[in-house]
Design a protein that fits this description.
With 374 residues, this protein is of the alpha/beta class. It has 13 helices and 13 strands. β6, α4 and β7 form a beta-alpha-beta unit.
């Protein structure tokens, strides 16, 4: 483990890498892990690294936990598929992970950390996908888990969470209301799983695999759907780390996509504002990215500026159209996952493009269908 310390994105305060904190104590800013680059560089230059197939734990030197203690379900190693409709577009299909979404990459690192700390219980706020992933990994780690969900969460996603043995609680209309409830429980001693530093570190492996699968030639654009912004910023952080070590030559332009009915980050980007305004009544068919306030919003704005990237909002109709188009590519994606392709189609990007398709369509199979009796 080569992590040196945790650093606050906002005030730059430093904490021990293993400190059981989830936000900066001084300013409540997000925390980022900082590493010792020399041993990282030696590890990625080894023959063992060169001859290992792309999968999540191949990149252990970029995570703040010990790989020999990993709580894992062989996450990662997901396919990078060439589009049949557009020669310049590739799809990174995350529905192939154990619980059906990219969340498993963060959960394996996060729950490994919880196990290292000796946690006996985990609490997590979710709209479904993260809850299922945390429940699965916590169950394998023999840690009790409570998943707190907004009242309008999909029944299909609730069933998956319960199947892993988690206790399901309902609170609040929006994700952020639910999130506040889990903060209270964390203060009582439970380990707080969610969009924090250790999950962000695990989600970097999407970018590591893309670079590896392209023989370390990174694409011109990488398109990511955004709810909380964790995956988008993790993607930027991963490519920045690879460039700093000399593994790759540049960082791709980051393109982030939100649903038009819930697009606070896009609004801030388009107006050039430094403050992101919370959406009062978010509404979209894409439940996986239905977030009234992105946890890593300011970090994503920073990444967009650094890469010359862009932010775009797509309508539910455009999302569902992209979902159907992905079906013709042999990919079944839930609406939130299809949003990245909807954004790419809307923007008509030049150069090489990788769309991260974040979850399986089995996650939300009834989304967009007319309700009975309508």
């Amino acid at each position: 483990m080569f992590a040196k310390y945790q650093s606050c994105f906002s005030c730059k305060a430093r904490y021990k890498p293993s400190a059981r904190i989830f936000r900066c104590i001084k300013c409540n800013g997000s925390l980022l892990l900082v590493y010792d680059s020399l041993p990282q560089k030696n590890a990625v230059r080894s023959l063992a690294f060169a001859h290992t197939r792309p999968h999540h734990w191949k990149y252990w030197m970029f995570y703040p936990v010990r790989r020999e203690r990993a709580i894992t379900m062989e996450e990662g190693g997901t396919p990078l598929l060439q589009s049949k409709a557009y020669a310049n577009v590739l799809f990174k299909y995350e529905g192939a992970n154990a619980t059906g979404s990219f969340k498993d990459r963060g959960s394996t690192v996060e729950i490994t950390h919880a196990k290292e700390l000796g946690a006996h219980s985990v609490v997590c706020a979710s709209t479904g996908n993260m809850g299922a992933s945390v429940a699965a990994y916590a169950s394998r780690a023999r840690i009790n888990v409570e998943v707190w969900l907004p009242t309008r969460t999909s029944g299909v996603k609730i069933n998956q969470i319960k199947a892993y043995g988690a206790e399901v609680k309902r609170y609040g209309r929006t994700y952020n209301e639910t999130l506040e409830k889990t903060f209270e429980l964390a203060r009582e001693g439970a380990y707080l799983a969610g969009d924090y530093a250790y999950r962000l570190e695990g989600q970097k492996s999407v970018a590591f695999e893309i670079a590896d699968q392209l023989h370390w030639h990174v694409p011109d654009h990488i398109v990511v759907p955004v709810g909380m912004g964790t995956l988008a910023f993790a993607t930027y952080k991963a490519f920045a780390e690879l460039r700093a070590l000399g593994v790759t030559r540049h960082v791709p332009k980051l393109v982030v996509v939100q649903a038009a009915g819930c697009a606070p980050l896009v609004k801030a980007f388009e107006s050039g504002a430094d403050v992101i305004e919370q959406v009062k009544r978010p509404k979209t068919v894409a439940s996986a990215i239905d977030r009234d306030m992105p946890n890593y919003g300011h970090e994503v704005l920073h990444a967009l500026k650094k890469t010359g990237g862009r932010a775009v909002a797509v309508t539910d109709a455009q999302i569902l159209k992209a979902q159907k188009a992905l079906g013709k590519e042999g990919i079944y994606a839930e609406p939130g996952a299809a949003a990245s392709y909807a954004g790419a189609l809307k923007m008509k990007l030049d150069g090489s493009v990788v769309c991260v398709i974040t979850g399986s369509g089995l996650k939300d199979p009834f989304a967009g269908l007319p309700r009975r009796g309508s």
